[in-house]
Amino acid sequence: MSVDIIFKIAAIGILVAVICQILKKSDREDIATLVGLTGLVIVLSIVISLIAELFQSVKDIFTLY
């Protein structure tokens, strides 16, 4: 794991925030909400894969079955 993942999550957050602001200014709040939810799902999928990797590492360290 490196700092690249943090930068990737931050970039997704900034991109989603900018797109949401643009859509809200053009009176498309429904689509802005969907974009925000999509960004959240993408970030959560990244975090879930990292947590799964962490649990696998702990399992390997303590030789659990």
What is the fold's blueprint, element by element?
Elements: H1 3-25, H2 29-61
Helix pairs in contact: 1-2
| Radius of gyration computed on alpha carbons | 17 Å
Class computed from helices, strands and strand pairing? mainly alpha
**End-to-end C-alpha gap:** 24 Å
**Which stretches are low in confidence, meaning pLDDT under 50 for 5 or more residues running?**
none
Report the principal-axis shape.
elongated
Structure explained in plain terms:
The structure is a single chain. The protein has one domain. With 65 residues, it is an all-alpha fold. α1 runs antiparallel to α2 (29-61). It has two helices and no strands.
Which features characterize this protein?
65 residues, mainly alpha
